[in-house]
Amino acid sequence: MDTLHKAVRLALTEVADVGKAPMMQAYMKSDMPFLGVQAAPRRTVLRRVFSEHTAESETEWRAMVLSLWRDAEYREERYAAITLTGLRRYQGFQTLATLPMYEEMIVTGAWWDYVDELAVHRVGGLLAAFPDTMRPLMLEWARDGDLWMRRTAILCQNRFRTATDTGLLYACIEPSLSDNDFFARKAIGWALREYAKTDPRAVLRYVEHVGLSGLSRREALKNLPTG
Q1: Which of 14, 121, 142, 213 is the most exposed place for a label (fewest CB within 10 A)?
Q2: Residue 1 pLDDT
Q3: Are 12 and 74 in contact (CB under 8 A)?
């Protein structure tokens, strides 16, 4: 694991623009410093590193992810851990056994740049694959005391389109309707805006009959024609 972490840091350092690091940290309001690596070069070097350091089992893969996550000193190293969770070669490892890993990353990451990727692309994938288990779990997460768990439950169907379980979507939104936090309200609006691409009438009906905050309402209706 130490070898992987060193390889990741070296690769990221080689493409870092240190002059951009302070601006990136300020934009993300991050206590953890940045190296100054932008998304495109980060993806390129991580593709190479992860092709050279592979996992032979689901257990080893999860250990690699959590090692990168827990030992990260720079924010890009946590981005690397998230990238490792989504590699196609490990698609078969996306089982319910990954839930404790994702929950740890969501709760300890506690910011939108980490959580949204995990919510939409990882937890959402598990919901699609294991709906009987994941549906009641998302209802639990929607009522969790942790904002980022609730945000994950709200956003996890953002790519489902016609497969969206609207009952689950609305049920996951409901506990956060009275939440004054920006990230809760933004999540509600974003989730509804995404579903509006599939069924705008349903979203309009929902918005008209539910007491949304102004922010959630504006986000939900953002791409719909006025009137």
Answers
A1: 14
A2: 63
A3: yes
Q: Which one, of 178, 118, 108, 120, lies nearest residue 146 by Cα?
A: 108
> How far is 17 from 20, CA to CA, in rounded Å?
6
**pLDDT score of 127 more than 90:** yes
Sequence-ordered list of residues with C-beta below 8 angstroms from that of 37, at least 6 positions apart, any chain: 12, 15, 16, 17, 76
Q: What is the dihedral of CA 19, 20, 22, 24, to 10 degrees?
A: -170
In whole angstroms, what is the distance from residue 125 CA to residue 187 CA? Answer: 18
Whether 227 shows a pLDDT value over 70: the answer reads no
Least Cα distance to 8 among 58, 51, 40 occurs for 51
Closest CA to 160 of 187, 195, 119, 190: 195
pLDDT digits (tens, 9 = 90+) for 43-91: 999 999 999 999 999 999 999 999 999 999 999 999 999 999 999 999 9
Q: What is the DSSP string of 141-186?
A: HTT-SSHHHHHHHHHTTTT-GGG--HHHHHHHHGGGTT---HHHHH
- Chain-centroid distance, C-alpha 3: 27
